[in-house]
């Protein structure tokens, strides 16, 4: 009978073994499994990262979010949430250096900033426990909830293989066959579909994450960043004019504002759900196509993010910046959100392909803490630890795990291996939150502009698919669906160009609208009197 050899201490003065993002490693000897004899788990980020890097030890533009810009800044925790998370950056008064990158999703590197498209809202925090990346969007929701559908969705936002052209037939074919997209599509086609600038939009982590405090108490959490510049948007006409005269308008606005000393800022608020609530809450709290109504889980202010320093080299510091949900620190964990778990692998892997296996060593991606990881060689490696052994276990002073500081960030799971949708809950459906946005957040003028925008995309859509589009919108709201059908039959409705969608998720809670169990989160009422708002 044999058992796994328990490694002795590697030697006096051994350093703490870390993940490649600088956080303490959970183990260098055992992968995470379902019980001692069960299968391994894909979201074991340390094992996946170690193996994926090992596969590339011997010796391109982002597929999505290609066009973007960003800046450096600082996050300051101004409230006390230490009873909710042990994460060092969220302790009262802590200031953390950080990097933000904003982007469109579907367009290529040279595309216009003002297309109708969700915006990426990716943040990297250089904490004292390693890097933490929050990779979200300017919407709190997304188009799909299962990671298997993600590449299929993104291809509908790209180009046809024969003509090389973007195509509304692809988009509406996918959306109408994926009713879970209704909430995000309503957000996209509404007035909030084109931000005036990156400074004038909110940002959301979108996914549900886990917080764990020093006593090991777990909570579920959503991260919402509210722009202190206010939320402002462009009309179709303004966006088209800006795209024609300055396709880099959003990148230019952010850079120039910071250069002139006008530092944009966002207030971070979180929604926190007690761990046990998730088991019986009336909607699936891990469904990326839905929001948590603030009436059920109010926002708690945590701190402020301020961008105050422009990049000195856009390629080195923005294009080569890598953001990955797998970069977590003690006190922050994942959740059963299937999209999040898929992204835990996919995002880090795209950086290995695009930048190389040693992308963490680039200055913009390098943690501020010492990295001692069992990953070696590979293309473009220039940082190393002299004398460190290349294997574990060892007795020659290699880094070792002192304690698994990620212990307690898991959750219970049991069942057969299946390929199926989430189990439906009491109030789970694909259209009620979209309906609430249309009727409780949008006013009559906004509903009319929503219908006009949708109708303007249908000029080249085949007739049978148009009927599905009308039925899709009638499922959201019959009056809006009927209005879209009327406008689509009117040749005076002009198309405003393609409205690409995003791979990264969101939708906000209205501060001034009473929130009941069906009301989605939103950014608050749009200010009156401004064009396109």
From TrEMBL:
Q: Where is the Catalase core domain?
A: 18-400
**Substrates-to-products reaction catalysed:** 2 H2O2 = O2 + 2 H2O
Provenance organism: Microlunatus flavus
Query: Which principal EC class is assigned to this enzyme?
Result: oxidoreductase
Give GO terms: molecular function aspect only.
Answer: catalase activity; heme binding; metal ion binding
List the cofactors.
Answer: heme
Question: What SMART domains does the record point to?
Answer: Catalase (SM01060)
Q: Kindly state which keywords UniProt assigns to this record, in alphabetical order.
A: Heme, Hydrogen peroxide, Iron, Metal-binding, Oxidoreductase, Peroxidase
* Record family assignment: Belongs to the catalase family.
What GO terms describe the biological role, i.e. biological process, of this protein?
Answer: hydrogen peroxide catabolic process; response to hydrogen peroxide
Known Pfam families for this protein?
Catalase, Catalase-rel
Coiled-coil stretches: none
Q: Does the keyword Heme apply?
A: yes
Which EC numbers does the record give? 1.11.1.6
Residues given in the record as heme binding sites: 347
Cite the residue spans of the region called Disordered.
1-25, 489-533
Q: Which GO terms describe its cellular component?
A: cytoplasm
Q: This chain belongs to which protein, by name? A: Catalase
Q: List the active-site residues.
A: 65, 137
């Amino acid at each position: 009978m044999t058992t796994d050899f328990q490694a002795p201490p590697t030697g006096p003065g051994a350093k703490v073994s870390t993940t490649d993002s600088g956080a303490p490693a959970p183990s260098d000897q055992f992968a995470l499994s379902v019980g001692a004899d069960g299968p391994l788990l894909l979201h074991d980020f340390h094992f996946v990262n170690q193996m994926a890097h090992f596969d590339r030890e011997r010796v391109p533009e982002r597929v999505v979010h290609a066009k973007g810009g960003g800046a450096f800044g600082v996050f300051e925790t101004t409230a006390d949430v230490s009873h909710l998370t042990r994460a060092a950056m969220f302790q009262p008064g802590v200031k953390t250096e950080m990097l933000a990158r904003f982007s469109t999703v579907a367009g290529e590197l040279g595309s216009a900033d003002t297309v109708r498209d969700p915006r990426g809202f990716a943040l990297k925090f250089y904490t004292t426990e390693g890097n933490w990346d929050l990779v979200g969007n300017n919407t709190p929701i997304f188009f799909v909830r299962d990671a298997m559908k993600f590449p299929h969705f993104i291809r509908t936002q790209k180009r046809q293989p024969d003509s090389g052209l973007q195509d509304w037939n692809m988009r509406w074919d996918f959306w109408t066959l994926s009713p879970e997209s209704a909430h995000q599509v309503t957000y996209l086609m509404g007035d909030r579909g084109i931000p005036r600038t990156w400074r004038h939009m909110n940002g959301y982590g979108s996914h549900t994450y886990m917080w764990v405090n020093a006593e090991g108490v777990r909570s579920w959490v959503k991260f919402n960043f509210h722009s202190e510049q206010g939320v402002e948007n462009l009309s179709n006409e303004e966006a088209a004019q800006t795209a024609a005269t300055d396709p880099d308008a959003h990148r230019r606005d952010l850079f120039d504002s910071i250069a002139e000393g006008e530092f944009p800022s966002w207030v971070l608020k979180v929604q926190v759900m007690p761990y046990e609530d998730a088991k019986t809450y009336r909607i699936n709290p891990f469904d990326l196509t839905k929001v948590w109504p603030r009436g059920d889980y109010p926002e708690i202010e945590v701190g402020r993010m301020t961008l105050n320093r422009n990049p000195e080299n856009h390629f080195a510091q923005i294009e080569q910046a890598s953001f990955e949900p797998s970069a977590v620190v003690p006190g922050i964990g994942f959740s059963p959100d299937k999209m999040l778990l898929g992204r835990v692998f996919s995002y880090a892997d795209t950086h290995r392909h695009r930048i190389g296996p040693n992308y963490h060593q680039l200055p913009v991606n390098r943690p501020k803490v010492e990295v001692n990881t069992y990953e070696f060689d590979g293309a473009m490696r220039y940082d190393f630890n002299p004398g460190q052994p290349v294997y574990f276990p060892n007795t020659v002073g290699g880094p070792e795990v002192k304690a698994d500081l990620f212990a307690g960030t898991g959750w219970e799971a049991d069942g057969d291996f299946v390929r199926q949708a989430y189990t439906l809950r009491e109030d789970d459906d694909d259209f009620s939150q979209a309906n609430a946005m249309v009727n409780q957040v949008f006013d009559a003028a906004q509903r009319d502009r929503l219908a006009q925008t949708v109708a303007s995309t249908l000029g080249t859509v085949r007739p049978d698919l148009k009927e599905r589009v009308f039925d899709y919108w009638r499922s959201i709201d019959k009056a809006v669906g009927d209005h879209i059908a009327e406008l689509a039959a009117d040749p005076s409705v002009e198309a405003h160009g393609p409205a690409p969608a995003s791979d990264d998720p969101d939708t906000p809670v209205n501060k001034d609208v009473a929130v009941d169990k069906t009301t989605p989160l939103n950014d608050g009422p749009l200010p009156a009197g401004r064009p396109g708002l």
